[in-house]
Design brief:
Two copies of one chain form a homodimer. Chain A has helices spanning 42-48, 101-104, 153-156, 162-172, 188-199, 214-220, 231-235, 255-258, 281-285, 299-312, 326-334; strands at 2-8, 17-23, 30-40, 68-75, 87-90, 93-95, 115-116, 136-140, 180-184, 203-208, 224-227, 241-246, 261-269, 277-279, 290-293, 318-322, 341-345. With 352 residues, the first copy, chain A, is an alpha/beta fold. Chain A has two domains: 2-161 and 297-351, Medium-chain alcohol dehydrogenases, catalytic domain (Quinone Oxidoreductase, Chain A, domain 1), CATH 3.90.180.10; 163-293, NAD(P)-binding Rossmann-like Domain (Rossmann fold, 3-Layer(aba) Sandwich). In chain A, the strands form four sheets. In chain A, strands 3, 4, 5, 8, 16 and 17 form a six-stranded mixed β-sheet that branches. In chain A, strands 11-10-9-12-13-15 form a six-stranded parallel β-sheet, with helices on one face. A two-stranded antiparallel ribbon of chain A has the order 1-2. The interface between A and B is medium-sized, with 33 and 33 residues.
């Protein structure tokens, strides 16, 4: 074990402050990474504040962060894909059982025994996993991703969660050139959805409640922007979408979007409203439409996404902050006051 | 125009009684059919009683019936697939525009200009279409189906709606040997779903609230029966179904079934609860599950279903009644007091 610097919360109501945590020394299959940037995901806030208590109670001290990019500092003797000095990234998972049908199908995100990057039992230390608000992390090779060298690292960090969460359903539901794709909600997830749908060649329509976001949506790659409160504008698109990515985590009327789907169209939710959404059945029946959810993506698909980003030079729009501003960033996150993701410059932790 | 005998209602609160209606003489592409049996669908009751007033107001007099089998009596000069004496069937649609993308894709059920078999504007007569509670019907050849000669005709009639409505989603979502399939609700639709899922080779599990239906479910082809009120029994099947056919038209907890789906599993609703169903988003997200609707089936798929029924000797379980008992049958339908479909023997209309 070695000591690593981190920023942690010690209770649901505490602010973040400097902390020292223990990491394992790299074993044969491990990669040790010096963390350069870590994105702030809304999940970090939910977990730090124990807002998912019934489902995933928070174990304190809690070090969030699952949008990690950095540089390899050490590798175990059996590691073949990485060497010290390489760029590397870690997302929401750091392990899985590797033996179940889901793992064998290369879909670790559906493994019943996956290990999340933070706030999860850690079989190596007997404690809990600590995430990316830290100066280093040690992860088994299979769960470490390669980062294309042309990407801005601060903007690349959010690809590890916001990126794969939106890329995976677009790919799963067959978004390609010639398809008409909607993106609902222009936040951390939604703005990545727009970039990916555009890069995949789809006719991309952004739905937003804020007329003020129109310009930015077009800049991000939207072909059209619809103000979702305007029923007339909505009706013009009735029955026309092949796929809609719904990135809204607040309660909202999903039926208004189901009605915009073409025959066999699908709407996938990647936000997670806490309460059930009322779904009108006739909207699904009359055009054989479907309504789905999607959860991050597999390790192979995350690598595919990063490679796609390298090819198309796609990163998240970020506001880079020092770790000392994380408490302030959480308050701004609650007001959606960020375009579109905070990325923590972990160099700031050296002086913490 | 010629006069046909029928049973009609003259208002939302009137009982059925004998009526004389006008049918068109067969044009070049038309097939005239002597109706031998007509199933009673729950939609008939909704429409007769104007219970879908906002969506499809009833035009009186109303002659329902869209589960029609009979014998060809006359054909137009351009008809090539039928000749007098042939068995023939008609389902929920009697026409569509034949030119839109949906029609060209062979999916007439999604045509914006389809013509339903009853209570729909009739471009030939300038009035309204009249359904199968009648001694004859005239339908354009493309919408007339062939009936395998080995099938019991009284039991074959319900295939035209209850049959295709359940067969189509089972096929669309890839039900085959080796899949685990659930059927929720053992009524007119559900009992056909069980027969089809079994004949397609799937491991078929029936969900019912009534322990008294267990024996019958097994007889119909179920491999297992789960009493859906028993949370323990339900939990045993968590995360295991490839596909669930939900044939319940009353409000019910769809989340209990979503949780039984495996990764990438789908639940399709073919019943149509009038109120929106609350759907918990986490249930969809964690295994990339989807929730869909399905609407009858195309003409080509209806023929495929009838041929499949001929091959596997599948018909609906019916209680045959004379047309004079249709009012009584409607009251029993409201109490689900039928195993599993009423089929009207239209010979009874001769003495009406």
């Amino acid at each position: 074990m070695y000591k690593a610097k981190a920023y942690a919360v010690s209770s649901a109501t505490s602010p973040f402050g400097p902390a020292t945590i223990e990491r394992r020394e790299p074993t044969d299959h491990d990669v040790q990474i010096e963390i350069l940037f870590c994105g702030i995901c809304h999940s970090d806030l939910h977990q730090a504040r124990d807002e998912w208590h019934d489902m995933m109670p928070t174990m304190y001290p809690c070090v969030p962060g699952h949008e990690i990019v950095g540089r390899v500092t050490r590798v175990g003797s059996a590691v073949t894909k990485f060497k010290p000095g390489d760029l590397a990234a870690v997302g929401c998972m750091v392990d899985s059982d590797r033996t179940c049908p889901e793992c064998k199908a290369g879909l670790e995100q559906f493994c019943n025994n996956f290990v999340l990057t933070y706030n999860f039992p850690d079989k190596h230390t007997g404690k809990v996993t600590y995430g990316g608000y830290s100066d280093s992390i040690v992860v088994t090779e299979h769960f470490v991703l390669k980062v294309p060298s042309n990407l801005d690292l601060a903007g690349a960090a959010p690809l590890l969660c916001a990126g794969i969460t939106t890329y995976s359903p677009l790919r799963h539901w067959g978004v390609t050139k010639g398809k008409k794709v909607g993106v609902v909600g222009l936040g951390g997830l939604g703005h990545m959805g727009v970039k990916f749908a555009h890069a995949l060649g789809a006719h991309t329509v952004v739905f937003t409640t804020s007329p003020g976001k129109k310009e930015d949506a077009l800049r991000l790659g939207a072909d059209e922007v619809v103000i979702s409160k305007d029923a007339n504008e909505m009706n013009k698109h009735a029955g026309s979408f092949d796929f809609i990515l719904d990135a809204v985590a607040a309660p909202h009327d999903i039926n208004a979007y189901i009605n915009l789907l073409a025959r066999d169209g699908n709407i996938t939710l990647v936000g997670a409203p806490p309460e059930p959404l009322p779904v009108g059945v006739f909207g699904l029946i009359f055009r054989r439409r479907s309504f789905s959810g999607s959860l991050i993506g597999s390790i192979a698909e995350t690598q595919e996404m990063l490679d796609f980003c390298g090819k198309h030079n796609i990163t998240s729009d970020v506001e880079v902050i020092p770790i000392q501003k994380v408490n302030e960033a959480y308050e701004r996150l609650l007001k959606s006051d960020v375009k579109y993701r905070f990325s923590i410059d972990m160099a700031s932790l050296k002086s913490a």
